[in-house]
């Protein structure tokens, strides 16, 4: 069964691999990128099977126009992939206001606005699927990556909530959490804050050395072609997972982080219960947690 896909950030990395593999198997792809000419080779090979549009996902008005046009031109889109993003690195104090705003707008706000733009179309057609390319950085955190982590933890929280809102309409969600992959994301796609001497000997300085090539690179076990294939295979499942953790490093990091978090939570169990009101009786189940 062939499908139609809408994908952001298709000029390189996972977006490019997804587009090429989907076209090769006969699916239609609405591919968006800031440089759609980077897909000229695929357009020459696959013709009308590939729909292209220029898009900077930070421009919400244009994003909505492109989404509307893609659904109108293709008739139906089965899978919407939010892939566009980049990494901003450096200690929080080293980052400029404009860099912070751009990171949040690109990695977090644009993904939310893509969902808001596509959801009415998916509802009207009776369902579909969102695939959010997040990161294992949405489960763990490292120094000198605070703003990047803020966006990835943020988008995971957004989809935890929105997935339940969308399920009654037959719209499913999968959040992909790749580890370090050979996409050029670090050295090629990294944005750095202005270095402050106070951080030179700490994690920020070491990360700069890695990205500049002055220090050995981080191990990158992830094969982007294999990751793209696993993402596509997940969409073919009758019951796709909500989270798709990919890469041996991602699995190990998530496992350690979740175990540590659960141990800390269990250690504070009695303290947590001690703050309940004296007349409170716990319900059998609770679907809403709030302050």
Automatic annotation (TrEMBL):
NCBIfam families: PRK06482.1. This is SDR family oxidoreductase. The keyword Oxidoreductase applies. SUPFAM superfamilies: NAD(P)-binding Rossmann-fold domains. It comes from Nocardiopsis mangrovi. Belongs to the short-chain dehydrogenases/reductases (SDR) family. Pfam families: adh_short (PF00106). Coiled coil: none annotated.
